[in-house]
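Weekly structure sync, notes
Attendees: PL (lead), two postdocs, one rotation student
Agenda item 3: pending single-chain targets
PL asked that the sequence for the first pending target be pasted directly into the notes so everyone works from the same version. It is reproduced below exactly as submitted, 232 residues in total.
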Amino acid sequence: MMKACAHFVTGTDTGIGKTLVACALVHALRARGLNAVGMKPVASGAWRDTNGVIRNEDADALAAVSGACFPQAMTSPYLFEAALAPHVAARLEGRSIASEVILDAFRSLSMRAQHVVVEGVGGFLVPLNDDFTTADLAEAIAAPVIMVVGLKLGCINHALLTAESIRARGLSLAGWVANSTPEGMLEQDATISALSRRLDAPLLGTLPRFASADPQMAAAALDFGALQDGAN
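Predicted structure, written out during the meeting:
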């Protein structure tokens, strides 16, 4: 197991605010004077810019809040153009995702930064290749996990199953974030209350719907004070 000053950000689904929370945490850490960097090891839905450089919205957001001073090969070693499950997108490009490439990049970042915030892809148990999942990645990094819960119908079940899977891996659920979704939900406060009673981890805050994904505003809405600075 590797030990590093790090957190792993996962979620109950795809598109429920992991990137915003990861960016908010990087922003908060850097505001404390720490050299923090965001890492999005794998992402689908990328494109080529006018210079032929592959880009991804989530990876770009993390690079921007990190000060864009780390090479993409470290912060986002695998970007795929097709907006599909990573192992499928990789296969379409005739590529494969190697766990050691990701872990070597994480080690390199850990040597250059004081804190690495790693954002997963999709939910907690997404396949990256035939033998390696995002849960395996979190376990290899051995960092406390922050879980983002998209507030929509079914999220209680998804959140409790995700928390159970995190703990089954021997990982610490450092905290969770309730994130309002575009479709919204009835009795949102009751849902948050139900999860607070059942999740043995602090609620770091509830994110409203922002007009734009602003890490500074998100950081102000969340309380990262309960988090540990290092890995478990």
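Discussion points:
- The first strand starts at residue 6 and ends at 11.
- The mean pLDDT is 93.
Action: rotation student to compare against the earlier draft before next sync.
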